[in-house]
What we know:
This protein is an alpha/beta fold. The protein folds into 4 domains: about 5-150, DNA polymerase, domain 1, CATH 1.10.150.110; about 160-245, Beta Polymerase, domain 2 (2-Layer Sandwich), CATH 3.30.460.10; about 260-325, Beta Polymerase, domain 3 (2-Layer Sandwich); about 335-570, TIM Barrel. Helices cover about 40% and strands about 10% of the residues. The protein contains 24 helices and 19 strands. A 5-stranded mixed β-sheet has the order 2-4-7-6-5, with helices on both faces. Strands 14-15-16-17 form a 4-stranded parallel β-sheet, covered by helices on one side. Helix 1 (about 5-20) packs across helix 5. The protein is globular and about 75 Å long. The mean pLDDT is about 95.
Amino acid sequence: MPVHNADIAAAFRRLADLLEIEGENPFRVRAYRNAAATVGGLPRDAAGMIADGADLSELPGIGDDLAAKIAEMVEKGSLHLLEEIETRVPPGLSDMARVPGLGPKRVKAIHDALGIDTLEALERAARKGRLRTLSGFGAKTEKNILDQLARFEGVEKRLRLIDAEHIAEPLVAYIRGIDGVKQAVVAGSYRRQKETVGDLDILVTAKDGAAVIARFVAYDEVGDIVSKGTTRSTVMLKSRFQVDLRVVPEVSYGAALFYFTGSKAHNIELRKRAIRRGWKLNEYGLFEGDDRIAGKTEEEIYEKLALPFIVPQLRENRGEIEAAEKGALPDLVSLQDIRGDLHCHTTASDGKYSIREMAEAAKERGYAYLGITDHSKSQTVAGGMSEDELAAQIDEIDALNEELDGIRVLKSCEVDILSDGKLDFSDKLLSRLDYTVCSIHGAFNLSREKQTERVLRAMDNPHFTILGHSTGRLINQRPPYDIDLEAVMDAARERGCYLELNAQPSRLDIDDIHCKMARDLGLKVPISTDAHSTDGLEMMRFGIAQAGRGWLEAKDVLNTLPLEKLLKAFGR
């Protein structure tokens, strides 16, 4: 069975959970969690890297032992150590440990006392009031567990965009290599670059549809063939991810691409627009009576409906049609507009490479500046720096800037916002930095009012510059903490602060809705990668995709500014 990065990362996370439940050394547990984050954030599939002869032990947090386990998963599709532990610890405990407010220690207590080892049994016990009988549990904890279980009940399992990409790109390359295929493209939420993807819709033009379908269902990752016709097939990959392929006539390719790209809400509005003109719009074309008047390309459909072309990222029925009518569609920010990265880590905390190595990699990408934002002292699990260590790093960066040509290293730090709203370092030390990225890494369960107040209090500090990953979410792993981001944005605008768009595929935080909110408020958004390695700088493209969905133009993005204007923008 082909193994993708998402499979490896999930296995490492499950292994870490079960080891922690067993009471394993916390450093070993942390190693597997870090490895899951590293593999899950790789720009390429680990399997492809191994095939190309890459040394995975050089990746952040991956030594020889973990590299060997990754290779084992790629080769065998399973991990012996995980299978061994699952014979001792019920695997369902790992699912329970992911319920916010629980964690491995509490899960172990529940299992030891009540024998509960599934989410279903956990819910039944909570409803019957059995959890509150345990030491350290109460009615409030019990209610919180039920609330969290209900929150995720029935939620569709979707892949992160990067994980969907690792599946889609080789599959589309395979299809394009089939004799007679002229065009092949992935439509749906993947084309709209949503942060998660539920399935893949692939559209193909070819003369012999049956031959294309026959080759498609023979793809080595196909597990089950759900349906197979002469122009359409649905398969379930071995990873249990669904793929639909349709072979469409060239004359209606644009209409099919429009239809299957969506969103449904956007399509409905354009169908209404066609109806008002006495026309019919469907996946086969735009029709006046029985005559197809457009459909070969998307552009001609929009043109016929008296609209400029609307890029897929904007097709969510959030005002894009009205903006198109007024000639006011945004000119979306692109990778070429980005002049630097404002959030990355080095060996001084939990990064893999030195400041010089990160700076040289940024320079190769054409950046004019790079911000170094290693963790502050409270983040002990991430190798947070002491005040003396940050002071020494500031001096090191000053010296390095004397040597480097073509790029400026900016002095910064990812400073923890403590639960009382104070920052993790003294104002005297923070005053020596060019700017700060201030983030929440704990106390996620505060009420909406208290969490918002915590951030606003932190923003009152004149050395606060950027709020990092503003909601703390990890896609498919951890929900956002409850916070009033509109109030935070208002406060940021008043104080001269900013909210980061963290480009890590597991974060993409802030989301597209709040990107547009920031734009509408006139608040510039920095797009940063939170890179922990030189490869991590490549994740900027996912931030750009999210920014586009949030209507951001180059003028709305902080790090499109040249260095001098950027430094001025940092001044409160």
